[in-house]
Specification:
The structure holds two protein chains of two kinds. Chain A is α+β, with helices and mostly antiparallel strands. Chain A is built from eleven helices and 18 strands. Chain B is 77% helix and 0% strand. The chains are: A alpha+beta, B mainly alpha.
Amino acid sequence: MMPSTAMSSPVYKEGPASMPFNSQSSGEATSARDVVDAVSPPRSDYLQLEGLAKAFGATRVFQDIQADIAQGEFITLLGPSGCGKSTLLRSIAGLTALDRGSVRIAGEDISHLPPRKRGIGMVFQHYALFPNMRVADNVAFGLRMQRVEREARRQRVEEVLRLVELEAHADKYPHQLSGGQCQRVALARALVVEPQILLMDEPLSALDARIRRHLRDQIRDIQKTLGLTTLFVTHDQEEAMMLSDRIFLMHQGRILQQGDAEQLYTRPVGRHAAGFMGHYNLLDARQARPLLGHHGEQGQVALRPEALYLVAHGLDPVKSAELPLNAGPGCHGVIRRRRLLGNVVRYEVACGELLLNVDVLNRSARHLLDDQDRVVVHADLDEVQELGA
Amino acid sequence: MSQSADTVTMASVPSGSVRRRWRLDPHRLVVLGVFTILALPLVVTLGYALAGHWGASLLPDSLTLKWFVELWATPRFQAAFVRSLLVAVGALALSLVLILPVAFLAQTRYPRLDSWMNGLILMPFAVPPVVSSVGLLQLYAGGPLPLVGTPWILIPTYFTIVLPFMYRAIANSLRAIDVVSLMDAARLLGAGPLQAFFLVVLPNIRVGVQIAIFLSFSFLVGEFVFANLLVGTRFETLQVYLNNMRGASGHFTSALVVTLFAFTLVLTWLGNRQSGQDLAKESAS
């Protein structure tokens, strides 16, 4: 059974493509940076975060933030609300002062530069569009500040609006646009000044589900086309896994784990990581012995609900072709609760003192088990994560 | 109270012919009743100001504009009018210059300042004018700003009166546009703090500030207590002038009251039109 929730996202490692609106626009728009990009290979430590720390009074927001981010990489800061991810993003942008540590872009320390000199573009959760300006003027704002002359400005605004598919709305005011359109304007406004780094602070959280999915794909496409190094903050695990080259899982102001979607989902490093990703069953190793055999005595183990297998009581488990090769001993139990999530059915099964979540693909309504049905649960021993103490 | 008003009016209206033309729902009747009560004295005053002679009869003998003409031609009235304008404009300019930055900082960098200000703006309501005027006289009697005896004392005094209206209006406007995010966005796009303020923040709170200014202005033009207590004898504002003229012809003072009212009405209407246009713009989407 391949549960649908475990999706593996390919890891993109592309070199930075030159900005498409650069090549089309007049020569003066090409900055020195792009020339450098064209010559040197993408560096793996393009954006360096070194020992970043921030506290508001006695409360520590984040600390010991250490990371190297490659050029053109799409990084997601994933974590529950209040874990410090948004403040970290604002600190990188220079909107919140750091207590300690340094931020380097291409080896250059930008920690002491004001926000406008950092070459960083940012997209906010609630768009932060300027209500008094039309879409085109909103997008042109950054160019106006750089004193780009009118004709070049108009051209670049037009190009970037085409990129986000909003060229028809250039003369509208923000209050005449939908949420998704507003966020695309905000994206265009951040992109038009050709930032070195793009920061996105929960840009999809204020949108409804359908638009969120569409814009998510659009953001990823644009980011790949431009080869733009991007940091994306979200609390949505699915969003993070769909978008990212790498995910930084944050908890209480620290990065718990860095890795691609597959690593984070299938090999969480600790209790908090396992608790946040998926719907892991977290068990004491001693408690879990009936399920795992003599697998371990110390600490905790984490079991994904889709790596557990249910066999209805009375069927011969040996004959059942569905069990994995390295299945643990059967553990008898009773179904306490059944929740239909759509393509997946989640059973809550009581096996002695263990209470387990088991996900089963919803192939047919005929195979649904009812509350109080007696079942045998097997674990796939290859998928057991030992978390230590 | 609204119910009794309904039943009385309903009973007096002959059912049928009127009801067919416009429905007399209770809601409309209440509004009409309140409007009548408020407008009646004004209508009578207007009638008196326009009457040539209004003595023993129910209606005036003749209609004339001579009281208005006489009033507007009086140099003392003109001077009082200009003084009132001057003091109000001065006070509003001072309040704008002082309150705008304070409200801006309270909404962006120093949130604690906002709760301080919220306490402070209650003071003009809590302290009666008679008390605060004594304090103000003492404050401006000496020190760096010896304003007692000069009309300029009205400007800082009026500042304290409009402070609550101005501060609340500006603070609310700033909060409504999520000023922190707007400033952040502008700064990241290359704007300096002043550029960001003038290009992004100010245009978006303009309407709210304008409304506050118009309303405060009409309020200040009608202010009497402070003007009379602080500089009444040597510096006649409109209200002080009205008070001093109370012994003169009733027609004359009626014309003065109506003029004042019309002026205030126009200002209030201008202020409301601003907000109305803004609302219309919002709903146009």
